[in-house]
Amino acid sequence: MAVQGAFAKASIQFGVPTTSLRQRYPLPFCPKKKKPLTTYFKELENVLHKHSLMDKPQHIYNVDEKGLQTEHSPPFVVGCRETTTPAITSARTATTTVIGCGNALGAQIPPYFVFKGERMREELLEGRTPGAEGTVTPTGWSNREVPIWTSNPSSLRLQ
């Protein structure tokens, strides 16, 4: 602590600015209530025993979706070096949703993309991972009408 104070004192004495030009970053999602990890893992163990999955990691899957905003560029701000400067993002930017799925052994199913648009164009999937598919919605978010690969489990191929 004394060393930090010495640097601050020296910066004032020699006229070194204590601010810098920084770029804002989006606020992270923080849940309001955090469930204790011990309770979570006890309940997980109960579910695994109930469904006889303790020795079958190939049958345990996790599906998640991530919304990517492609048009967000936060402004620069002037602030102290030690502080962070969060930015509030606008809901008006285009969003692309990526839906991924993998099992407890580490095998994954190719991703599924949901683009913002009126009709699906093949160019949207150029350079994709082999097996990846996609569709479009007016918002770019997934909804009940999005025919993701989980609707046809027999067509899934783990990679």
TrEMBL record:
<protein>
    <submittedName>
        <fullName>Uncharacterized protein</fullName>
    </submittedName>
</protein>
<feature type="compositionally biased region" description="Polar residues">
    <location>
        <begin position="149"/>
        <end position="159"/>
    </location>
</feature>
<feature type="region of interest" description="Disordered">
    <location>
        <begin position="127"/>
        <end position="159"/>
    </location>
</feature>
